[in-house]
Each structure stands twice: as structure tokens, then as C-alpha cells.
Design brief:
single chain; about 290 residues; mainly alpha; globular; Squ/phyt_synthse; Squalene/phytoene synthase; Isoprenoid_synthase_dom_sf
Length: about 290
């Protein structure tokens, strides 16, 4: 197989993985410029693979080994050697083609380690920091792949990451708690008087609901701050932020009186999700 065909096969593998595991970001990438779309899908596939490590690791050590593999693959990217993993090779090609900062990719890997070991963030600041190094870094890298590396766009990416990162953390909460993980700020839960043993058993108290309401409010405020900053994002880079079109409907679904945050993982109608992403792309703003 020629190098060009080999690269094309890696790109197709990455795209298929995103289409299967993260349809919202797959749809968002369709509205990006053709030349940058493979890089976006490689970044999104990489993110999906990191999430998959958390989902399938039965023991922290096994997950840590897998995360270490990704770290090594990123750090060895300058050699140009193939890893044999199509997502890793697509990611390395994206880094080379768009001069993406490897330190932000490494931050995405390291941000998964605390949850893997069941370590809760100590407080809201640590919680936000982990999200900035995962979802925030992903938005920043996606914007860079689309040609916008400005400091104002990095600031917008930080707010975007917080908005969507809180949502994704809360959507995954039933799975996390069922597997003995608590990826929420410990100090916040303690201040609200949450009964951790009852929570581990899947019991939802008014105190827990109050803590989750506060986190959802943080996400809503981050989305508002992003909207103030989005005018400074280069128009050709705004496709990187299209997944934010779903933050508000997810927040609304989680605020429903009959929503059980430790049992229900919020899902939205696929057609409705696509329509929101399409509308945001058509308007070129969120």
C-alpha cells in the first residue's frame, strides 16, 4: 500500500470510530473545511479512545498501561514511525500537518488518570482544571487544526470545555458511580452534606440534587461566557465548537423533575441533535 493510501486508510478508521462512538462530534466535523476534517476526526477519535480506556478498564493498572501507551505514541510522534494503530497514526499525521502542540494531547491523557483510580477532584478548581485539560484541550486543538491559535480562541476553548465537560461528566455519572468512581468535586458534595454511602448505593437525596444543580449552573455560565467570546473566533474555526449546540438541551433534560441522575444517562433524539448542530453551523454561531 502506498503512503498516501495508508494515510487514507488511517483517516477512514478514525472517522468510523468517531461515527460509532461520538456521533455528535462526527456530525460537527462534517461542517469543517475538507482539508482540516481528517485532523478533526483524528482528534475526536483520540478523545473517544481515552474515554474508552475509562469505560473498559476493570483494574486501574490495566487502564494506566493503556494510557501510558498513548503517551508514548504522542511523544514518539516526531519520528514519523507508524504505530500500527490507525487512530494513533491518524493523530500523528494530524499533529504533523497542523503543527499541533503535543503537550495539550498529553494533558488530555493525564486528565483521565484521577478518575481511572477513583480519585475525586478535591474542589471545584481541581474539577475545572481536569476539564480544561481534557475537553478544553480538545476544543483548543480542534480550533488550531482549523487555523485559529489566538489567545482569545484559547480562552473561548476553556469556557467551551467547561460547559461541555460538566455535561459529559454528569451524563456519565451513573456509569462512574456504579464502578466506584466519583468524578465530582469532593468539597462541593461535602459542603452540601451529601451522604456518600447512600450515593454509592444509587440513592438520590435533595442534597445531591442541590450539588448537581450548582454544577449545571456552572456549565450554563460557562456557555454564556463562551458566547461573549465567540465573536473573536475566526469564522473558519467555529466548526470546532459545534458540539456546544447540545449543552442547553442536555441541561434542560437533566433539570426535569423525574430525572434520576444516578440511573438515567441523558439522551436526545438523534434528529434533534443533528438539527441543532446543523442550525449552529448554518448561523456560524452558538
Amino acid at each position: 500500500m502506498s503512503p498516501a493510501a495508508d494515510t487514507r486508510a488511517d483517516d477512514l478508521s478514525a472517522a468510523e470510530l468517531v461515527r460509532t462512538r461520538d456521533r455528535d462530534r462526527y456530525w460537527s466535523a462534517l461542517f469543517a473545511a475538507d482539508a482540516a476534517r481528517p485532523a478533526l476526526l483524528a482528534l475526536y477519535a483520540f478523545n473517544a479512545e481515552l474515554n474508552h480506556v475509562l469505560a473498559v478498564a476493570r483494574e486501574p493498572l490495566a487502564g494506566q498501561i493503556r494510557l501510558k501507551w498513548w503517551r508514548d505514541a504522542i511523544e514518539s510522534g516526531a519520528t514519523g514511525e507508524k504505530t500500527g494503530n490507525p487512530v494513533a497514526d491518524a493523530l500523528k499525521a494530524a499533529v504533523a500537518a497542523h503543527n499541533l502542540p503535543r503537550e495539550r494531547l498529553l494533558a488530555m491523557v493525564d486528565a483521565r488518570v484521577p478518575e481511572l483510580f477513583g480519585d475525586s477532584p478535591a474542589d471545584n478548581a481541581e474539577f475545572a482544571g481536569l476539564i480544561e485539560d481534557s475537553q478544553g484541550a480538545l476544543f483548543e486543538l480542534a480550533a488550531a487544526a482549523l487555523g485559529d491559535r489566538s489567545d482569545t480562541t484559547k480562552d473561548a476553548a476553556r469556557e467551551a470545555g467547561l460547559a461541555l465537560g460538566v455535561i459529559e461528566t454528569l451524563r456519565a455519572l451513573p456509569f462512574s458511580v456504579a464502578h466506584g468512581r466519583l468524578p465530582l468535586p469532593f468539597a462541593l458534595l461535602e459542603a452540601k452534606g451529601v451522604d456518600f454511602e447512600a450515593m454509592a448505593l444509587g440513592e438520590v437525596s435533595p442534597k445531591l440534587r442541590a450539588a448537581l444543580t450548582e454544577l449545571r449552573a456552572d456549565a450554563a455560565l460557562a456557555l454564556q461566557r463562551f458566547r461573549v467570546k465567540q465573536a473573536n473566533i475566526a469564522p473558519h474555526a467555529r466548526a470546532a465548537f459545534l458540539p456546544l449546540a447540545l449543552v442547553e438541551p442536555y441541561l434542560q433534560a437533566m433539570a426535569a423533575p423525574n430525572f434520576h441522575p444516578l440511573r438515567d444517562s441523558v439522551t436526545l433524539n438523534p434528529l434533534g441533535r443533528f438539527w441543532r448542530i446543523w442550525r449552529a453551523a448554518r448561523r456560524n454561531k452558538l
